[in-house]
Amino acid sequence: MRVSYSPGYVADMPDDHIFPMKKFSGLHRYLLDRGVLKTSEIIEPSMVDHSNLIMAHTPRYAQAIWEGTLDRKEERRMGLPWSKSLAIRSRLAVQGTINAGLMALQDGIAGNLAGGTHHSMPDLGEGFCVFNDVAVAIKVLQQSKWVNKVMVIDCDVHQGNGTAHIFADDPSVFTFSIHGEKNYPFKKPPSDLDVGLPDKTEDEDYHKALISALDSILHDFNPDLVYYLGGIDPLEADHFGRLSLTLNGLRERERIVIETITQRNLPLVLLLSGGYAPTLNDTVIAHAQMYEVAKEMGF
Q1: Which residue, 93, 140, 189, 265, is the most exposed by fewest CB within 10 angstroms?
Q2: What confidence tens digit (pLDDT) does each residue in 178-224 have?
Q3: Residue 223, SS3?
Q4: In total, how many domains does the chain have?
Q5: Residue 97 and residue 6 in contact, taking contact as beta carbons nearer than 8 Å
């Protein structure tokens, strides 16, 4: 299974910042050390071209990120302190998601050891999301005629408001988000299907809701490509999650999604999205499960 990764995914960040920036390099090393991935399966992306970036973002915003000209309010909303390394890592990660889509179309499944930054809007970043990598990737692959219909499965605990907004009037893209109903963002533009769960939802109820939703969507919508945002923040121990999944329950979620999609012979892209477990090691172990499950299934 080929995946996108670059050492440049780790940007400069204050040590006391809540966002676990070092999870990207940590996950890369963890998967290699345990033989889940081979060095030959790691494909390093370049930075996404500006012309591709502005297919989902405004030229003003894309340029402001690159040049560091966001105003204070915009930077606070993004939740990450601007640096040149942040601008570079954001463009690298977007290209990583584009590349993962192409690799999935060739191989059946692929991943990006980053991505899933679903809160970013066309003209702003928010919720630790700079660019909406999934939106850019879908638009690039559609323009080049690699795909027509695309499905987004967003299992991050926070609703994918940016992705929902960008594709609100696009019937070729089906956006599905299963999330904490009372959690951020508090204004939720409607996805094609939103499943909002109550606080403290546990494994069994989560799995039932997920299976039911996937079966319903795939009965009527047959995509050329599926992007899976496997945020680990539904875990009970997550700083921001408010749901109550166990680590085993999260692993079963990965199995449900990967099995449901690949058994239908639909190309699948695995993306990290969010997660704020108690320690960096906990975060890495939880993120690694989607790749471990994929390998167990023979990919």
Answers
A1: 265
A2: 999 999 998 999 999 999 999 999 999 999 999 999 999 999 999 99
A3: coil
A4: 1
A5: no
